[in-house]
From TrEMBL:
This is Pseudouridylate synthase 1 homolog. Monomer. Forms a complex with RARG and the SRA1 RNA in the nucleus. InterPro entries: PsdUridine_synth_cat_dom_sf (IPR020103), PsdUridine_synth_TruA (IPR001406), PsdUridine_synth_TruA_a/b_dom (IPR020097), PsdUridine_synth_TruA_C (IPR020095), PUS1/PUS2-like (IPR041708), TruA/RsuA/RluB/E/F_N (IPR020094). One of its GO terms (biological process) is mRNA pseudouridine synthesis. The gene is 5569093. It comes from Aedes aegypti.
Length: 455
């Protein structure tokens, strides 16, 4: 019997309540043995052994419990020491009144700065910036804006480090070198802000035009109905490839402009643009985009220059990474006679095509459209319409001085379009081999990354 109990002690699972049960069993068996031994007047060796075993098991239970409690305490201390930010929490935690009795008497919760949902209407020249979106260690538009807002107490230090706490969201995420005549940022701000003071601390390439109150749930990106971009380039880009033209003296003929217009119309409507971006497959629903209009405005010669320029204007619901620049690139390849118009039609099909990407210099986010929001809230008496009519004069003045002039000046200095056109004939406009599809897939994005409006 003692041999059996020894095996039971060794094999019992002390972490699942077995120790407690074994302890009770040993006590009961020890008591029975004691009575039997007393009756028979024999030595109580077995009873003593069982009592010792019961005591050992109870000590084991106590030690394990103490060890478990110590591990739990250490784990809680480690978790409390880590102030991990929860991105889902948007509201700031309530701050308790100060411990000082005098400060408590003067503490007024109503004196806390109240913030309301607003939009910042702004413009910028992106030639010398690495895009709109903030990226640590790089020169971006958002970084300049956030630094200036922090200096003028539009936002707190905490909001500067984590802008999502004040529901910061831009309408479009422009890429490197891309400018914006009108950009809209939704954000929570104090009631009284000084726009003129803020602009003094912003670079002259960035300008805030207005701050407008919007509804509590407004999001500058998801509430946007459409976006209008423009692409400005020298008209010599419309000449046939075999024609040797001089950029300064060239004037685009009327018949060439008609070819341009016909080519641009091929992009209008709902199409599958998987060939006009990266990391997109034909079967991906997000590859389909709706282009409302694509047209070429009348050519013009900028003041102080002899080179003729033209502006392509495109309006669509949304655009993917490099989509517009690839649309312009393939348009110029067709207009210059390097590939037929059928290439554009085929590029909307499942077959893979290599589409050239035009330089980013001439691309501008021209306007953000909020027609549905304006119909519902623009005339409710509490919110302003987001049509930017009041700011139109400021927008146009900034565009001419800091965007259009910069595009022309930079093009005449660097000849980026001219150099790109020289490489255009080297591009292949034939379908890509199916064996090359891997290079198009690239690194898959995580679900929380949004590739809309990356131009």
């Amino acid at each position: 019997m003692l041999t059996f109990l020894r095996r039971a002690v060794v094999s019992v699972d002390l972490n699942r309540g077995g120790a407690s049960a074994l302890s009770k069993l040993l006590r009961r068996y020890s008591s029975a043995q004691s009575c039997a031994v007393a009756a028979e007047s024999r030595p109580a060796a077995g009873s003593t052994f069982l009592a010792q075993m019961a005591e050992a098991v109870e000590q084991k239970i106590t030690d394990d419990k103490a060890r478990h409690e110590e591990r739990y305490r250490q784990k809680r201390q480690q978790q409390e020491g880590k102030s991990r930010y929860n991105g889902m929490v948007k509201k700031r935690k309530w701050e308790d009144p100060p411990a000082d009795p005098e400060a408590v008497r003067n503490f007024d919760p109503a004196s806390r700065i109240k913030k309301r949902k607003c939009v910042i209407v702004m413009g910028y020249s992106g030639v010398n910036y690495l895009g709109m979106q903030r990226n640590p260690g790089t020169k971006t538009i958002e970084e300049e804006l956030l630094v200036a807002m922090l200096k003028h107490n539009w936002i707190s230090e905490e909001a500067f480090n984590q802008p999502q706490q004040i529901q910061f969201q831009r309408a479009a995420r422009t890429d490197k070198g891309v400018s914006a005549a009108t950009q809209v940022v939704s954000i929570k701000l104090p009631d009284n802000v000084d726009i003129d003071a803020l602009n003094k601390d912003l670079p002259e390439q960035i300008r805030v035009f207005a701050v407008k109150r919007v509804t509590k749930g407004f999001n500058s990106k998801s509430n946007c109905d459409a976006r209008t971009y423009t692409y400005t380039l020298p008209t010599m880009a419309f000449a046939l490839h075999e024609d040797k033209v001089d950029m300064e003296s060239y004037r685009v003929p009327e018949e060439r402009l008609k070819v341009v217009e016909e080519t641009l119309k091929l992009f209008e409507g709902t199409k599958n643009f998987h060939n006009f971006t990266s990391r997109k497959e034909f079967i991906d629903p997000s590859s389909k985009r709706f282009i409302m209009s694509f047209e070429c405005e009348a050519p013009f010669v900028p003041e102080g220059s002899t080179v003729e320029f033209a502006t392509l204007k495109i309006k669509g619901q949304s655009f993917m990474l490099h989509q517009i620049r690839k649309m312009v690139g393939l348009t110029l390849a067709v207009v210059r006679g390097l590939t037929p118009q059928e290439t554009i039609v085929k590029a909307f099909e499942e077959q893979r095509y290599g589409v050239p990407t035009a330089p980013g210099l001439g691309l501008v986010l021209n306007r953000i459209h909020y027609e549905k929001y304006n119909v519902r809230y623009g005339e409710d008496g509490c919110h302003e319409a987001l049509d930017f009519q009041k700011e139109e004069q400021q927008i146009q003045e900034f565009f001419r001085k800091h965007i259009a002039a910069t595009i022309v000046e930079t093009e005449l200095k660097t000849f980026s379009m001219f150099e790109w056109l020289e490489t255009l004939p080297l591009h292949s406009y034939e379908p890509r081999d199916e064996n090359e599809t891997r290079e198009w897939k690239g690194k898959q994005k995580s679900n929380d990354e949004d590739d809309d409006d990356d131009e």
